[in-house]
Amino acid sequence: MKEPLALADSRPSPVAAPTPSRWEALRALDPPLRLVLGALLVTMVAALYAIFVWAPTERTMGHVQRIFYVHVSLAWLSYLAFFVVFVGSLGYLWRRDERWDALARASAEIGVVFTSLFILSGALWGRPVWGTWWTWDARLTTTAILWFIYVAYLMLRAYVPEVPRAARYAAVLGIVGFLDVPIIHLSVQWWRTLHPGPTVIRTDGPQAPPEMVVTLVLASLAFGLLYLALLLVRTRLERLKDEVRHLQQALSLRGE
Amino acid sequence: MDRPMPPEPPAGTLGRYARQLAALVLKDLRLESRRRETLIGVLVFVLLVLALFQFALDLERDAARRLVPGLLWLTLLFAGLLALGRTFAAERDQGTLDGLLVAPLDRSALYLAKVITTVLFMGAVELVALPVFAAVFDVPLLSPGVVCTVLLGTVGFAAAGTLFAALATQTRARDVLLPLLLLPLLVPLLIAAARATDDLLAGAATPVTAPWWELLAGLSALFLGAAVLLFEALLEE
Amino acid sequence: MVKFYGTTPALRGCDLTVAVGERVALLGPNGAGKTTLLKVLATLVRPSAGTLRLFGIDALRAPARVRARIGVLAHETYLYRDLTAAENLRLYGRLYGLDALAERVAAALARVGLADRAHQRVGTLSRGQQQRVALARALLHAPALLLLDEPDTGLDERGQALLADVVRTPGLAVVLTSHALERALTLADRVVLLVDGRVVHTAPAAGLDAAALRNTYGALARA
To answer: I want to staple C184 with a disulfide (CB 3.0 to 4.6 A). Which of A255, B137, C25, C217 is the partner?
Structure first.
């Protein structure tokens, strides 16, 4: 069990000590992370119950409509993740503090995972409902473009190995990419309204039964907590990587 | 190194900035006119792509009308990528970038000069591409509306492209990285430019295309503004 | 001051003060950090830690204010091969905001003995001539601090004589790097030895001879 160790508090830990059990590792977690994980567990169970049992079955689409709750939550969280990349990028260029960059790095990765899942869940939904895996629906299309932008962001980071340089380049893309989102959204929206096609997602507005709305809110909350937990873990890991690099630098400074 | 300050040269006035900008643009134009290899290369590429489209799609006249806007803009986009790959070539290969960087020059001037050069360069390419497309596919591409769309699209392309060309040129895998970084960001440009051209070819009056033009102008403004502020971050070491 | 490339330090603690009109030679083996230090002084490279004051100005905060007073002659000539010598100098003259540019360019080219090559493309000039144009470029805006990275490489005999003359310009501070100890001793007032990115020894050039310096150097490099 290597991962829980990486999450553990940075207090001097006995390196030679026997590998801690899962329970010990969990107890060594940051209090905020423990809190988030606890809340995530509760909310996710509640959300899953609401999605699969409590929420009424939609009349025309049937059970497959239940994907909607996951699908829409993923969309919101993707946008949030990319907004955090934007904030982290701005923060890094402004303050030149690597902690901002670690935040941006971590959030970009999670954002790409969430957008991938969003597109996948859209396909799974579209197949039975529209008889096609993919339609150029405005929201799906916009998200697909975002997916390309942030995959490029991750590739850029992979292609430029030196951290300060990679951080500067990635910050530029993180800022410009996010500022481009409204324009992408607008262009795709106009394009689709001028050339209408089938719409996969319909947020059913006020006429949707209240159970559906509550379920959606609950699902979004659960995924929001999942995002937060992943972000905490991932940022922590990135900062440990930075710390290792700084220690290596200090070692090579100290000498031969 | 403390010493009494010699009289400061007239501080960074707008006039001085403009003169520096003009000197940089003039330099690029002069270099291009001396070698001409990039311009001729890109022009031949455009004609080649046009021929390839015809072989691949075997277009009839009516189908051509429908497809020309998309084909035109794809061709310009890829031709532009070729040109962008070369924009910083002289600076990179001859090591002159450091010479420009040690000069008392605002970094945004380096960016804007390359944007202007790219617009002029692509303008020259389009000057040939538009009539040839119009003639080969028999579509009226030389109307003021289409020319205006092409102009706006070119400015937006140069604004975004120059920023990422400067970034990519300093990395190992620049040929792969530049299209990957740039093309997703330019999807709105492709949509707006191709749709506006399509509307115009279908005989729409300009009010219909005005929103697309506003979108293109907004995109250009966004990239120009962001790049002027961010360009310095790409150049420091 | 410290500069890292990745986890490798290129500079690991350099303290250097140059007085007005002083000529300092940075000596050291390949990879000692001479070029990096010079690039930091030229405001091309930001140190990872440390301070840089030039002309009493914090050059890391306000690099633009010091650039106008620094002249750089590096490994690369900073010249566009497809522009003529005069066009190159005019370009840089405009970037530095110089007035009476035509006269300045003519005078600079005359000084390096290339007045008759003014309208020849730099790419067609010999390496030595190119390096002399590069020297003219570095001096065009009459800098107060001249940075020379291995200035003798590529310079022809005529250029080397010219260089010796240039570094004696009254009031001009010079920092140069060199492999050649004898040459450095004739050009500089003071020598600074760099080993592994650290200043290990500094001494006035007067009275030093190359053999003694070589001994010190060998001892330091072994230590």
So the answer is: C25
Percent of chain B with pLDDT over 70: 94
Minimal Cα–Cα distance from A108 to chain B, Å? Answer: 15
Structural domain spans, chain A: 36-198+212-250
Which residues, in sequence order, are CB contacts of A108 under 8 Å at separation 6+? A81, A82, A85, A150, A153, A154, A170, A174
Give the pLDDT band of residue B114 (cuts 50, 70, 90).
very high
Q: Do A245 and C7 touch (CB under 8 A)?
A: yes
The domain locations on chain C are 2-69+143-222, 79-142
Nearest CA in chain C to B36: C82
Q: Which of B152, B169, B178, B180 is the best mutation test for A, with the most CBs of A within 10 A?
A: B180
A176–B223 CB contact, under 8 Å: yes
Quick one: tokens of B78? 């890829």
Residue of C3, C4, C45 to mutate, testing the A interface (most A Cβ within 10 Å of its Cβ): C4
What is the predicted ipTM?
0.90
The sign of the CA dihedral C218, C220, C221, C223 is positive
**Does the beta carbon of C6 lie under 8 angstroms from any beta carbon of chain B?**
no
Closest-CA residue in chain A for B224?
Answer: A176
pTM of the model: 0.88
How many separate helices (H) and strands (E) can be counted in chain A?
8, 0
Position A18 confidence tier, pLDDT thresholds 50, 70, 90: low
- As given in the structure block, the two tokens for residue C139 are 């001096």
Domain C2-69+143-222 has CATH 3.40.50.300: yes
